[in-house]
Design goal:
It contains six helices and nine strands, in the order E-H-E-H-E-H-E-H-E-H-E-E-H-E-E. By secondary structure, the protein is α/β, with parallel strands linked by helices. The strands form two sheets. The chain has a seven-stranded mixed beta sheet. A two-stranded antiparallel sheet has the order 8-9. The longest helix has 24 residues. The chain is globular, with a radius of gyration of 16 Å.
């Protein structure tokens, strides 16, 4: 899917909230397999921005209210990221959709972490959806982003049994360690060119050893 990158992979992280997944990337792959060269936020006071600043990572805020439409804002974000030499875009709690024009500028190079076992419970409030459905097994998915809502090819998944849980925050706390492992692992795989589509099923991503 991507050529082997001989040096640290320049990546961008898009955020909207606290930035725990950004922190996981800063603590693991940053300065090793990858270099986080940009953090963009859709929220002006997102705590994730402070996490980036502590590591000297350039940040920028792209508020929805400052652009006439999503396409214009997506274009501004893409321009900024391309100016930083970004090769991979990581969505880490980014609570906005990205249009086809943005994705076309980073073809097969935008990944997302989602708090469910996709294709179950896509979109917003995934944990709440799962609890309302009465599931006993919850999980995390890292996937390639396409033009749909959490519908892109799956890179990796991990599950945890929580048969008696009813509180969304309790589920979230159980899933965060999974997110903090799967997302850096996906970046490592991308950085060494180990992700490729299955020629017999383009929806399936093969992770080479």
């Amino acid at each position: 899917m991507v050529p082997r990158v001989p040096e640290q992979l320049p990546i961008a992280v898009l955020v909207s909230g606290t930035g725990t997944n950004l922190q996981a990337l800063l603590d693991t792959v940053h300065g090793h397999e990858a270099q986080i060269v940009a953090v963009a936020s859709s929220v002006a006071d997102a705590p994730a921005l402070a996490r980036a600043a502590e590591h000297g990572v350039p940040t920028a805020v792209f508020l929805r209210s400052e652009y006439p439409d999503r396409q214009t804002r997506d274009g501004a974000i893409a321009d900024w990221l391309e100016g930083k030499g970004v090769r991979l875009v990581v969505l880490a709690g980014y609570m906005e959709l990205l249009g086809e024009a943005f994705l076309g500028r980073f073809t097969d190079a935008v990944i997302n972490v989602h708090p469910s076992l996709l294709p179950a419970f896509p979109g917003l409030e995934a944990i709440g959806q799962a609890l309302a459905y009465g599931v006993k097994v919850f999980g995390v998915t890292v996937h390639i982003v396409d033009a749909g809502v959490d519908s892109g090819p799956v890179i990796s998944q991990c599950a945890v049994e929580l048969p008696h849980v009813s509180d969304p925050e309790e589920v979230l706390q159980a899933l965060r360690p999974l997110e903090h492992t799967l997302l850096p692992d996906a970046v490592r795989l991308f950085a060494r060119g180990a992700l490729r589509p299955d020629p017999e099923n383009p929806r399936r991503i093969i992770c080479e050893p």
